[in-house]
Structures are given as C-alpha cells and as structure tokens.
C-alpha cells in the first residue's frame, strides 16, 4: 500500500496508528498557555477509547489553566542512530473525570512523580484533532 | 549538601545542572502558540553558552509563530521502573542566527527528520528563564 506523506516527506499516520503509538508509552508532554506564554510539563498518561487520561498537578492555578481550555499533548520516540522516529500530537480540551473514573484510572496511571507529596487531579483530554508523523526509513 | 525542593517535594535543579541536562539529550520538544492554541513539535537541539540552538521547519507560517515570540522548550528523561526522572523547561524568545552560525550549527545539529525534504531554519532560543526538577530518589 502506498504511504501517505506530507509536504515535508514525513509519513502521515492514521488515527488508529496514532492511538496505538500514544498508548505504547507511559510518558508524554502536556502544553498549555498562560497569558500568551506556552508551558510544557511531562505527564504520565493512558489511552481510554479515543481520549487521553493523565494526571496533572492539582491547584487553583493549574486547574484554571488546564480545564476547559485548549491544550496540546505530545508523545514521541526517536532513535538518532537509525534516524527513525515518530511523533503524535493531540489537540483538544481537558475535563476532570468523575470520582469513580478517577479511582479506576489512578490505579492504572503511574505518576511521573510517584512518591512525592504532589497533589494530583485526573483529567480527560477529549481530542479535537489527533495527528502523527513518522520518519520514513530509507528505501 | 541539603537539596532544595519545591512545594511538590521535587528537587530544584540549578541553572548549571539544567544546562548540563539540556545538552545531554539530542531531542527536545518546542511549544509555541497559534491563536491561543498550544502546539508541540519535537526538535533536535544543542546548547551554546546559555542559549539553545535548534532546527525548526522553515516556512512563512512557522517563522511568524516562532520568531520573536514567547516559546517553551522542554527536555526530559524518565525511568518508570525506578520512578526517577528529570525535566528541564526553558522559556524565552527565538531568533534566527547569522548565516555563518547557521553553517556551523547545521554541521553539529542532526535533524529529527534527517533525509527528508524538509526545509529548515536554525534558531537560537534566548532564555528568560530556565527551570528544572528532578524526582528525588527514595532515601
């Protein structure tokens, strides 16, 4: 089957491939905007259906910046020795989960900062868009 | 020596430690803002003094979003089996480098997408702020 490539000659991944790759790594990076300035934090995540579940630091400021506002989430992998890699980017809006879901996901989600005194909230990122690119291996 | 920790019990890294860790990895993630929406792209980078040099996709849209505007750059490492990791975040403004610097850095910087037809511009991120956190190993 022909691969689809973008104008930069990167292979365009299907939604199904993107979700599989997202689920294959425990850690991604969440970006949010505070007064026009972008911020990035590493977060542990899992994939639930077409949504991404992650832990975020809990606090009035974080809640105001993350919840019901546009965020981006990225997972990648890269092997410089072989010049291969991929990157999946999710754009969407984050919402808190129910208490019952929170208990269920907390058991599955390891924390980037396990063992620390950080307070967390469990959040569901509902995608507006999921895009992925893979470096084409040389033919 | 006592470690400095933040209110989440993460070890606060010094600027010198942050720059050493930034330089220890070839790949980071760049975040920029487009009409209030955050975007993340993986980029190869190197550290030059207190600044970060990276390749970005070259194009009128990318240039308008990246250059002379606030961006964030993050590098991390994480070992889930040992619950250890670190993350360094740079906030600042990106500027194009001179042609001479561009040639010099191009030789040192591998591209995330080596071998593709992507057009690149080499950019210097001048930090306003460099912050880093490390998970404390259990005592």
Can you walk through the features of this model?
The structure is a homodimer of 139-residue chains. With 139 residues, the first copy, chain A, is α+β, with helices and mostly antiparallel strands. Chain A has a single domain, classed as Pnp Oxidase, Chain A. Chain A has 3 helices and 7 strands, in the order βαβββαββαβ. The first copy, chain A, has helices at 15-23, 60-66, 99-108; strands at 11-12, 27-34, 37-48, 51-57, 70-79, 84-96, 120-134. In chain A, strand 5 (70-79) and strand 6 (84-96) form a beta hairpin. The two termini of chain A are 15 Å apart. At the A-B interface, strand 2, strand 3, strand 5 and strand 6 of A face strand 2, strand 3, strand 5 and strand 6 of B.
Keywords for this entry:
homodimer, about 140 residues, alpha+beta, Pnp Oxidase, Chain A, six-stranded antiparallel barrel, 3 helices, about 20% helix, globular
Q: What is the structure about, briefly put?
A:
With 139 residues, chain A is of the alpha+beta class. Chain A has helices at residues 15-23, 60-66, 99-108, and strands at 11-12, 27-34, 37-48, 51-57, 70-79, 84-96, 120-134. Chain A has one domain (11-130): Electron Transport, Fmn-binding Protein, Chain A (Pnp Oxidase, Chain A, Roll).
Briefly note the CATH topology name of chain A.
Pnp Oxidase, Chain A
How far the N terminus sits from the C terminus of chain A, by CA atoms, comes to 15 Å
Largest sheet of chain A: 6 strands, antiparallel, barrel
**Oligomeric nature of the chains:** homodimer
Task: Give the % helix of chain A.
Answer: 10-25%
Count of helical segments of chain A?
A: 3
Rg of chain A: 16 Å
| Main β-sheet, spatial strand arrangement of chain A | 2-3-4-7-6-5
CATH architecture of chain A: Roll
Tell me the count of domains of chain A: 1
What pattern of helices and strands is seen along the backbone of chain A?
EHEEEHEEHE
Q: Mind telling me the CATH class of chain A?
A: Mainly Beta
- The CATH H-level superfamily of chain A is Electron Transport, Fmn-binding Protein, Chain A
Largest protein interface, residues of each chain: A-B, 42 and 42 residues
Average pLDDT for all residues of chain A: 84
* Principal-axes shape call of chain A: globular
Which structural class should the secondary elements of chain A be placed in?
Answer: alpha+beta
Q: What is the beta-strand fraction of chain A? A: over 45%
Q: Strand tally of chain A, please?
A: 7
Residue stretches of chain A low in confidence (pLDDT < 50, at least 5 long) are none
């Amino acid at each position: 089957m022909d691969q689809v490539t973008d104008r930069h000659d990167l292979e365009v991944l299907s939604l199904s491939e993107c979700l599989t790759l997202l689920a294959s790594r425990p850690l991604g990076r969440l970006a949010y905007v505070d007064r026009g300035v972008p911020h990035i934090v590493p977060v542990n995540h899992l994939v639930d259906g077409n949504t991404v579940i992650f832990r975020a630091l809990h606090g009035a400021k974080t809640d105001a910046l993350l919840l019901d506002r546009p965020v981006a989430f990225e997972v990648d992998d890269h092997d410089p020795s072989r010049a291969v890699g991929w990157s999946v980017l999710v754009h969407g809006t984050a919402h808190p989960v129910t208490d019952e879901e929170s208990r269920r996901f907390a058991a599955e989600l390891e924390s980037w900062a396990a063992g620390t005194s950080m307070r967390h909230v469990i959040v569901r990122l509902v995608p507006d868009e999921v895009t992925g690119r893979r470096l084409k291996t040389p033919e």
